[in-house]
Amino acid sequence: MDRRAELGEFLRSRRARRQPEDLGLTPVGGRRRVPGLRREELAQAAALSVDYYVRLEQGRLRNPSAEIVDAVAAALALDPTERRHLHNLARPGRPSGQVRTLLPAAFQTVLDNVHVPAAIYSRHGDILAWNPLAAALLIDFAALPPQERNMPRLVFLNDEVASRFVFWKRKARDLVSQLRMESGRTPGDEKLAALVGELSMRSAEFARMWATHHVREKTRGGHHYRHPVVGEFYLRYETFRPPDDPDIALVCQVADPGTPDDEALRLLASWSTQAPEGMTRAIARSGRSAADVCAGPEQPGH
User: HTH cro/C1-type domain: which residues (predicted)?
Assistant: First the structure.
């Protein structure tokens, strides 16, 4: 992915969302061939010369000031996440480093002592470590080849994982937006470019979502799950990043105490304890209820 091309596409996509009237401007010129602000109008709103703005949009400015980027962001009415993304693209910082693939043993110890679904992810969405509840919720990660343990790849290309999300498009859009945000933060990241290229080729829906240039930080939120044993329930998630290693994230999912969602999570925990991780998919596909599974094996004739 070329940073200059990304910058130009992002700014053009955001110009298309705004009209001269939104900024109190008189439209420039006659009939418009494309929707939104023209470069001249955005330059005027940001108090820049047209030539300077054109060079910014084309990525020909080596290091525009933060004030100039903020002025363009204000004229485009960017939200805080989009503003950070624009700064990442227009004023790139550190180059992408090595992607972490191994974690200290202490991380797995922490996961094993967290009594809710929890996993550790890389900045590309690679699932680096997980606890049994996380596997019971989604898929037996241990049974997958390491290169397939990636949430964007699983959500777009694995039917079993996709079926877990009641609102699949919402989950898919969040993942694409997070990858977009990461592409601006770490320009020149070859692994990320390869992942985006693969998903764009294999999933028309991914390619369509990628072209929207939506951006989002992974912080907190929630998902409605559809589990073949437990049924439908809702979990909230919180993201924690080590201050000395922001390239990885611990994501924990919780249910509100005393709710049906909390009861469903307790059933999932009980089921996952009874069913070894390597057996979870087979038991889930059997159609048995969580209560049946927790009660023990089926008896002949039942």
Answer: 36-83
